[in-house]
Specification:
The protein is built from six helices and 18 strands. The protein has about 300 residues and is α+β, with helices and mostly antiparallel strands. A hairpin with a 6-residue loop joins strand 10 and strand 11. The relative contact order is 0.13. Bound molecules: zinc ion.
């Protein structure tokens, strides 16, 4: 899965007092794109010395012993008069799938869409995982400029990763959205329920999934999603594994469960397909990053918790 990166590591402890060094890598996002540079050893993040105009940098995490930072608003904080950057200059073709070349201060940068980086062979798995964590934090910081209660500009807390309001003292912590991934098994026929979504550009098989509602346990979330999406009733709900999925700010929690009662599937409009597949019919997904894929493969190999 995306988080299985040993011997590489990412330590998320927040260190607001960490001093930024010239070689420390910097994440620069805009919408769904990330700025990278190309060197002799492939693609890499720019370092702080490549981005002297980046403005304030926010500490993110330690990746393999290197402190990584976020340039929160590079195009806005750029003050260099000889390079009057605007968002349009940097990202005017941001809908294109090809990396865009950007010349700044004598350096060549490449702007990549995150979804293209996922399958780029020049990016290691631990690097892509770091990108998704950084992107999750970037999105939260982007939405945390002002207090949601009184509208005042927010400040960084000095001890923990939180934004605080100097006026009304409200505190805002990073937002993580829990969701369940569900392997529905028919124990009578030894088959797994495989789905495809109607409204998403995902070309491969998936499992029933959905967000947790406020006031709901994860087990209730499982039973409700299966009922809503397929009309099936489930029992014997058992935990498998979890997965941070930062590109959409999620924490995914995987469960297996057994169908009980009628096997008649009643699709709702979210799904375009839901079918029962035997173990040897499971194909899996094109890469090994997702919890969904691991749960399908685990069932195929007969290793799911009973
Ligand atoms: Zn406030």
């Amino acid at each position: 899965m995306i988080q299985d990166i040993a011997p590489h590591f990412i330590h998320n402890t927040y260190k607001p007092q960490e001093l930024c060094r010239p070689t420390d890598p910097v994440f620069v996002f805009h919408q769904d794109r990330l700025l990278l540079m190309e060197g002799e050893e492939g693609l890499h993040l720019p370092s702080t010395k490549d981005l002297p105009f980046a403005g304030d940098l926010t500490y993110l995490f330690d990746h393999d012993g290197q402190s990584c930072y976020l340039a929160r608003s590079l195009s806005i904080t750029c003050q260099d008069p000889s390079t009057p950057m605007t968002e349009d200059m940097i990202y005017q073709k941001s809908t294109s799938s090809a990396p865009e070349e950007i010349l700044l201060e004598g350096h060549t940068f490449l702007s990549f869409r995150l979804r293209d980086l996922r399958s780029d062979p020049r990016i290691r798995k631990d690097q892509y995982f770091a990108v998704t964590i950084a992107f999750h934090l970037y999105r939260w910081y982007e939405e945390s400029h002002y207090c949601g209660r009184c509208g005042s500009p927010l400040s960084h807390d000095t001890k923990e990763r939180a934004m605080v309001c100097p006026s009304c003292k409200a505190r805002f912590y990073p937002r993580i959205m829990p969701a369940v991934i569900i392997g529905v098994i028919d124990p009578k026929t030894d088959r797994l329920l495989i789905t495809r979504y109607a409204d998403r550009p995902i070309p491969y098989d998936a499992l029933v999934a959905g967000f947790t509602e406020i006031g709901e346990t994860l087990e209730e979330n499982v039973a409700r999603e299966v009922m809503e999406e397929t009309g099936l009733t489930v029992t014997n709900i058992r935990y498998y594994k979890s997965q941070p999925w930062g590109v959409v700010s999620d924490l995914l929690v995987g469960f297996y469960c057994d169908v009980t009662g009628s096997r008649q599937i009643t699709l709702n409009k979210e799904l375009k397909k839901a079918i029962w597949l035997s173990r040897d019919e499971i194909a899996g997904q094109p890469d090994d990053l997702s919890l969904t894929n691991e749960m399908m493969i685990t069932f195929r190999e007969g290793r799911e918790p009973r």
